[in-house]
Design goal:
The chain is an alpha+beta fold. The chain contains 3 helices and 6 strands, in the order H-H-E-E-H-E-E-E-E. Strands 2-1-6-5-4-3 form a 6-stranded mixed beta sheet. The longest helix has 15 residues, at 12-26. InterPro entries: DUF1348, NTF2-like_dom_sf.
Amino acid sequence: MTQRPPVPPFTEATALLKVQAAEDAWNTRDPERVALAYTEDSEWRNRDVFLRGRPEIVAFLRAKWERELNYRLRKELWAYTGNRISVRFEYEWHDASEQWWRSYGNEQWEFDANGLMCRRYASINDLVITAADRRLGH
């Protein structure tokens, strides 16, 4: 079985490492790489979309990053306990018409004993911004 350190139970230090690893992976915009952090049967809720398993996650992320161009993400540890971590995040992106957006949200993560995420529940809101309002990189 594949292990993805750090593994639960989390300390503040290991939870921070897990959050940074997730931020780094998502900023690659590589669906296959990102999906490796999840169990084969991982359960997701992303806004109003419900997914199960790596193939659905990869397809979802592929479509996401085809639509959300120049995506840049920041995650912040909010809380942790045992095998769960909660984060707040924001990311910026633009659509095909060059309209910029900032998306805000919260995620609840649950991990298996090997450090793979078995559940991810995300609530996200979008805000229209101008290119001049960007904060997360150019």
